[in-house]
Amino acid sequence: MAEDSSNAPGSPGRHRARGATAGRRRKRPSARRRAVLYTVWTLAAVLVLGGAGLGYLYYKLNGNLTGVDVNAALGANRPKDADDGSMDVLVLGSDSRAGKNAKYGKDGGTSRSDTAMIVHIYKGHQKASVVSIPRDTLVDRPSCTTKEGQEAPAEQGAMFNSAYEAGGPACTIKTIESMTDIRMDHFLEVDFSGFKQLIDDLGGVNITTTAPIHDAKSHLDLEPGPHTLGGEQSLGLVRTRHGVGDGSDLGRIKLQQAFVKALLDQVKHVDVFGNPKKLYDLADTSTKALTTDSELASVSKLKGFAESLKGIGSNNMKMTTLPVEYDPQNPDRVLPMEHKAQLIWTALRNDRPVPASATKGSAGDATSAGKVVK
């Protein structure tokens, strides 16, 4: 997400075909948190609302940001750009349990991308489509360069989130570009602890639940009705799986998408002008939580991005999950429905809305979990 909004996907490409039939679902014991898009859009709103008032803080906030030169790692063999004014951004969250994130689970010495969302910002920057990719989707991962500079060989039928473990954000981008033939203009990544603090700095997020949510694993107990969730409860909500719907990870994605919209609606009403401390706390927390590609690793560029997105709200953001079916050989994994997935990628490459037919019949579209929160 950058000041320069001219970069966008271009040429159509090939897509791998997987022949598979729908399999039954099995619940998995692990639980992870997704926080990324919430933090990105909150930071964007804060930078827009704060405007020039943040000028005296730019130097300090720049020091908070972490930048990664993914372009150097990816090289020139990538999908072409199309100068149509649209933009594609990969938003990531990793499941590292090191440092402040240790209390959310053990750190096995590696990280995997716990959340992956492709954000397509349409020409004119007045609307967007967000495509969530389930972490357990089986894909053909291309060869990648590891953090140590070694080559991680290509792997067929690899879990999607293993790409981050193999080669960090650059490998995840390479995998997505191989799947979609859409060039990712930028990437952003957020950590768990930063998300929790961000919600607390906001003063909580207002939601309404239409059904009870009780999940001991995410320490969440909510009765039907209105709630103001602090950071810890918000983390519980976006990670809960057993407390809503059919208990699947796909249902949790729907719940997260509903939470994104609730947060977007609330951020617009934050009185940063009347509360300079809140403005500073939000900007400080957001920039500390973010890792970006090196082209975005400055507050001035993030502010330019934020200005370009200020017309996008919850009503003109379409949330979609990659069309998938359960793997009949392993119901803990899902397979892309290639024909339907290609409908999505073709639409985004051509800057068109995602057709409703692209998700019809998908396991990710079958769950009603997203209706639990509004």
Question: How many DSSP helices?
Answer: 11
Number of strands: 17
User: What percent of the residues sit in helical stretches (DSSP H or I)?
Assistant: 25-40%
Fourth CATH level, the homologous superfamily: LCP protein
Q: Gap between N and C termini, in Å?
A: 27 Å
Contiguous runs where pLDDT drops below 50 for at least 5 residues: 1-38, 48-53, 96-109
Give the CATH class.
Alpha Beta
The largest sheet is:
7 strands, mixed
What does the radius of gyration come to?
A: 19 Å
Oligomer status: single chain
The CATH topology name reads: Aminopeptidase
Question: What order do the SSEs take from the amino end to the carboxyl end, as H and E?
Answer: HHEHEEEEEEEHEHEEEEHHHEHEEEHH
Overall 3D form: globular
How big a fraction of the residues is strand? 15-25%
Provide the CATH architecture. Answer: 3-Layer(aba) Sandwich
Strand order in the largest sheet: 1-14-9-2-3-4-15
Derived from helix and strand composition plus strand pairing, the structural class reads: alpha+beta
Count of folded domains = 1
How would you state the average pLDDT, rounded?
77
Explain how this protein is built.
The chain is an alpha+beta fold and 374 residues long. It has a single domain (36-372), classed as Aminopeptidase (3-Layer(aba) Sandwich). Helix content is 34%, strand content 21%. The protein is built from eleven helices and 17 strands. Strands 1-14-9-2-3-4-15 form a seven-stranded mixed sheet, with helices on both faces. A two-stranded antiparallel sheet has the order 5-8. β3 (113-121) and β4 form a beta hairpin. α1 runs parallel beside α7. The radius of gyration is 19 Å and the shape is globular. It starts with 35 loop residues before the first helix and ends in an 8-residue tail after the last helix. Residues 1-29, 354-374 are annotated as: Disordered. The chain crosses the membrane at residues 35-59.
